[in-house]
Design a protein that fits this description.
690 residues, alpha/beta, DNA polymerase, domain 1, OB fold (Dihydrolipoamide Acetyltransferase, E2P), Rossmann fold, seven-stranded parallel β-sheet, six-stranded parallel β-sheet, 40% helix, disordered C terminus, binds adenosine-5'-diphosphate, binds magnesium ion
Length: 690
């Protein structure tokens, strides 16, 4: 083969056989360079030795067969789709194979090709495969002996397995030697891990499944190890960094307590103590405050912000949505005015001239408390003297965004608030760089929240009940999963529900809010709802986090089957904030799978955020709940937080003890680690914190 002088950083376009057009398909699956391609991990493997004779496979089997294409046919379906139908034969029998809406296959497959097909066998006038994984097998490969393993990569419509495999083969042949080991020998030996280049080769071209798994284990360990190492390093830097000592002087905080219309709960007093003790230390605070929805975290954050202000420093609070940032700003403005504190709001929808003014106040130090969204972390924004950064609903932000805001001050204190209760082991692992305070109790005299699943034919009764409540002056949320009617999903949209609701609630005022409104419109609507001019607010999940309107005591959720448990709990957290008894009705007017029903029924009976999160994690895995990348979880390409938990803990222990032994990683043994860290931190600027 002619050498093309590929390097790890060469764009995939330069790989033989991939031009600009194909490289754009690779880009769609985030593959831009040779290196990306080498680290593209197969989703699974098909073992040639597992190939069955077509005659032997049975309905409901997960099976792999190989045969010759005898016929290809394309049919239209009633819904404007296409089915590509193939008749596949081996020496024992034939079977039908069908793909829906894959018109590309018509050109890709030819009569006479050898085809490997893997998937579930179903029944329709005989046995068949529907949308199976497939691979066209070349002559040489067909002659290969049993026992070889075929990696199955994530495919796209435009990229077949074969395209990917061929490109990977070229990269492995030419560039494997360029891959540098990232771990010291001591760790490889201790944990029985193979060398990195070998792992890359074996993940793509294993001789057997054991080899593939061992390679994967090495790569997953690597991923976890460096994630944990960054946490460990940050933690050690914070522990050793010089920070600002902010003392609770009782000047403003005393006045805050006096101005509140309620008493702090014992839980609030306790966490305030742990936070202020920490702030007083001459090193940066790095703390997570966990407390269920409605537990009263905002006031705790405000207290901490005032400590910073009374020491002559600014405080910033970053919220994940504009609605929430505005709510904090508006909701706290009364108290802040009383305390004669200058507060500003910065979001991306603030108009240019006002923005300029606001930025001026932030950089001059005139603004003492700054509320905002991720707009706060833009390059342009300079703080005069930032003493404390608070991040609300932290699971919505990545580690990166957290770090970016902290970097705006000189080692400011840092407090993150989260209502997502995650098991302690996982919390330690994910937020291993943070100390944790838990707000255990809830404010007293909260009305109870009653949750009920409502079947379609019972809806009328509920509407009657809701009218009675509205007449008493209460307010209601109606939650729908979609803004507009969608072709693909047969779900009620905000639009439809609005039409329905205004007919039923003729004498009441109804507003609509969703992510596609202009932010000024959104603000007006939230305001109207807050001030009681609207009785009913129809909303998408834009109100999911943080929204605090104590008079709203009713929530109707359309299509609860569409939401996860943690998300339902967040939504329900919008009610039950006043002293009245609140009601959450889950409108279930269609058949759902038994396990879905079970989930909703679990939610109906449970009001404990911790139990719900735990259940959600067992049902769906932590990534789904906390969200992936943007939500603060590491952007794992290979590892799985639940399935690979043991490796995660192992990597964590190793990373933390490496840092404990040698925080600067100066020993020659850590050379490879240092190099890899530099590479990672150049990419992510993660280490610049602290
Ligand atoms: P979350 O923890 O979900 O962010 P919030 O901070 O929004 O909760 O508080 C929920 C509601 O409880 C707010 O209306 C707040 O004013 C009120 N609240 C907070 N602390 C107390 C308290 N100690 N007593 C009574 N009400 C409180
Ligand atoms: Mg909150």
């Amino acid at each position: 083969m002619k050498r093309t002088y590929l390097e790890l950083k060469s764009p995939v376009q330069y790989i033989k056989g991939i031009g600009p057009r194909r490289s754009s398909y690779f880009k769609k699956i985030n593959i831009e360079t040779v290196n990306d391609l080498l680290f593209l991990i197969p989703r699974r493997y098909v073992d040639y030795s597992e190939i069955h004779r077509i005659r032997d496979i049975k309905i409901n089997d997960e099976a792999t067969v190989m045969g010759t294409i005898k016929a290809i046919d394309v049919q239209r379906t009633r819904h404007r789709g296409q089915i590509v139908k193939v008749l596949l034969a081996d020496e024992s029998d034939t079977i039908a194979v069908k793909w829906f809406n894959r018109p590309d296959l018509k050109k890709r497959l030819k009569i006479g090709d050898s085809l490997l097909v893997s998937g579930k066998v179903t029944f329709f006038y005989g046995r068949q495969f529907i949308n199976p994984i497939y691979e066209i097998i070349t002559k040489q490969e067909a002659n290969r002996t049993q026992g070889s393993i075929i990696p199955i990569y994530p495919m796209t419509e435009k990229l077949g397995l074969w395209d990917i495999k061929r490109a990977v083969k070229i990269c492995v042949d030419e560039c494997l030697d360029d891959i540098c080991e990232t771990l010291p020998v001591s760790l490889l030996e201790k944990n029985n891990l193979m060398a990195l280049p070998q792992a890359i080769r074996n993940i793509h071209f294993p001789n057997n499944l054991q080899e593939a798994f061992a390679a994967r284990r090495r790569l997953v360990y690597d991923e976890f190890f460096f994630f944990e190492l960054i946490l460990a390093k940050r933690r050690s830097m914070v522990k050793n960094a010089k920070g600002i000592s902010l003392n609770d002087q009782g000047v403003l905080t005393r006045r805050l307590i006096d101005a509140l219309s309620f008493e702090l709960t014992k839980g609030q007093v306790d966490v305030i103590k742990s936070i202020t003790d920490d702030m007083a230390k001459p090193r940066p605070m790095n703390r997570l405050l966990q407390g269920d929805v409605g537990a009263g975290k905002t006031i705790v954050a405000l207290y901490a912000m005032l400590v910073s202000v009374e020491n002559g420093y600014q405080s910033a609070l970053m919220a994940p949505t504009e609605i929430l940032a505005e709510q904090h700003f508006i909701g706290l403005s009364g108290i802040l005015k009383k305390l004669e504190i200058e507060a500003v709001l910065l979001t991306s929808s603030i108009k240019a001239d006002e923005r300029k003014q606001t930025l001026g106040k932030i950089s001059s130090g005139n603004a003492q408390i700054i509320f905002g969204t991720h707009a706060l972390i833009e390059e342009e924004i300079k703080f005069a003297k930032l003493g404390l950064v608070v991040v609300d609903e932290q699971h919505r932000f990545g580690v990166m965004q957290r770090a970016a805001l902290v970097n705006k001050g000189i080692n400011p204190d840092f407090l993150v608030l989260s209502a997502t209760p995650i098991p302690r082991t996982l919390a330690l692992t994910l937020y291993g760089d943070l100390d944790i305070s838990i707000l255990k109790d809830k404010p007293p005299r909260r009305g109870e929240v009653v949750t009920k699943i409502i079947k379609g034919n019972k809806k009328a009764d509920i509407y009657t009940f809701v009218k009675k409540e509205l007449t008493k002056g209460r307010q209601a949320f109606v939650i729908c999963p979609l803004i507009e009617k969608s072709e693909k999903l047969d779900l009620k949209s905000v639009e439809e529900v609005y039409q329905e609701v205004i007919l039923i609630f003729r004498d009441y005022s109804v507003g609509v809010i969703h992510g596609r409104l202009k932010s000024s419109e959104r603000r007006d609507i939230m305001n109207d709802f807050r001030t009681g001019q609207l009785d009913i607010l129809i909303a998408t999940t834009v109100v999911e986090v943080g929204v605090d309107i104590p008079n709203a005591s009713i929530m109707l959720i359309e299509h609860p089957e569409r939401f996860g448990l943690a998300q339902l709990h967040q939504l329900r957290g919008r009610i039950g904030r006043g002293t009245e008894r609140s009601h959450c009705f889950l409108f279930l007017d269609r058949y759902v799978a038994p396990e879905t029903y079970e989930r909703i029924a679990y939610f109906e009976k449970n009001n404990d955020g911790f139990a719900l999160a735990q259940k959600d994690i067992t049902l769906r895995g932590p990534g789904e709940i906390l969200g992936k990348k943007q939500h603060g979880l590491p952007d794992l390409k290979i590892g799985d937080l639940e399935d690979d938990k043991d490796l995660l803990f192992l990597a964590r222990d190793d990373a933390f003890s490496a840092i404990a032994d040698d925080a600067e990683m100066k020993s020659p043994e850590f050379f490879t680690i240092r190099k890899q860290l530099r590479k990672l931190s150049a990419k992510e600027k993660l280490l610049s914190i602290g």
